[in-house]
Amino acid sequence: MAATGGVCGMVACVTWAPIDRAELLERSGQDPWVRWATSSQVLAVAGEQGWACVGPWRPQLAHWGGTAVVRPGSPGQAESEALEVLARLAEEQGVAVEWFSTHPGRELAVPAGLETTGSGRWDFMWTREAPPTADPVPQGVELEELHDHDDADLIETFGRRHSESFEGFPGQGFATLWLAARDAGGELLGVGALHELASGIPHLAGIVVAADRRGQGIGRLLTAELTRAAIAEAGVSTLGVYSDNTVATRLYAGLGYRTAHRFHTRSLTAGMQ
Predict the structure, then answer these.
(1) What positions does the domain N-acetyltransferase occupy (predicted)?
(2) CB contact burial 25-59 (16+ within 10 A = b; e otherwise)
């Protein structure tokens, strides 16, 4: 298949050719991101420098984004060229790329028609191992299921009160399961959800514990139970965590999660042509 994008001149030539998901899996070495965060709708390119892809993050073609993964020492413009090709392919499909990631320290220049509106750094983690059930349940704490729509206000109010970066999105139909931790008196101590990615794989989201009850095992309890539910459903569980949240990262690693990628993600929007 002919290459659809490249830069040649005084610097090394960077070319990217479109590939399908089967070849993307092969070229990426069955990368966990490709396996579990991409669907059949993914748009992908590959070249001597590595691979890149974009696709819907959530079902119904919502929130298109992706990443480029290149070899160390690749030309600085490699990811930028990949994004330019992918943005063009997405436009041909009638969709827009809303976010794109590189590994930290890599440059990204957005193509004409897009502009960067923000950025963040996060880890994509995964596990296929159900956490053991031997952990003691915090005394007086019980779990119950909440309803994504009917309990949306309760979840949103609690989440915002105890975390400025709460991203549970209750009431929007993203969650297949919400769990709440309560004490013996019924006070809400923590919440967490399973979302469904466009790939069909469950993804932990919106895990928040009351500020005055942290460090008591409540977050671990919610994470472990949600992980067991995800693995029972799909054989794998995924999550994203801000890279600077070392407490959460250690908790997830202790429950069997592995970091597939550490991403620097740029939010994108249509800009001036």
Answers:
(1) 141-273
(2) bebbeebbbbbbbbbeebbbbbbebbbbbbbbbbe
